[in-house]
Amino acid sequence: MSYMIEKEIHQTGKRKTAIARVYLRPRKGEIGSININGRTLEAYFPRPALQKIAMQSLDLTNTNGQFDVYVNVAGGGISAQASAVRHGIAKTLNELDKEAMRLPLKKAGFLTRDAREVERKKYGLAGARRRYQFSKR
Questions:
Q1: At CA 96, angle to CA 116 and CA 98, rounded to 5?
Q2: With left for phi above 0 and alpha for psi between -120 and 50, is residue 111 left, alpha or beta?
Q3: What is the pLDDT of residue 27?
Q4: Helix axis angle, 48-60 relative to 78-96, nearest 10°?
Q5: Where along the chain do its domains lie?
Q6: Strand-pair partners of 45
Q7: Sign for the pseudo-dihedral over CA of 65, 68, 69, 70
Q8: pTM beyond 0.85, yes or no
Q9: 9-108 has which CATH code?
Q10: Which of 16, 37, 110, 136 has its Cβ near the most Cβ atoms within 10 Å?
Q11: Average pLDDT, the chain
C-alpha cells in the first residue's frame, strides 16, 4: 500500500538516555531518503546490525522508500540511538495510519518504550550492586 502525505508528521522516540526526533516528510526524489543528524543512514550507523534495527519499523510495514525520514538524535550510545530511531519511526507510522499500522507495530513491540535504565551506584558499594572485596585479615 502506498501512502501520500501532504504535511510533515513528527514524533519522538526514546531508549535509555537517547532521544530521537523523527520527521516523516513527503518524498522529493524517486525513492525516499533517510537522514540522521545531517548524514545518511549508512554513514551514521556504520554497523549493518544497527542499520537493521533503525529500519525495522519501515521494513515491517512495507513503507521503506515511500517517505523522506529526517532524524535528530542525541544522548546515549550508538545502540540506544538506533533503538530510539526505531521507536520514533514506529510512532510516526502509527500516527500516519492507525488502522493499518498499529497492530503489526504493537505486536512487534515497536510502539512500547523500552523502560530499562542503568541502575544508579549506591554509597558504600563498588557499583550498583557490586560489593567491595572482603578481607578477613
A1: 75
A2: alpha
A3: 86
A4: 10
A5: 9-108
A6: none
A7: positive
A8: yes
A9: 3.30.230.10
A10: 110
A11: 94
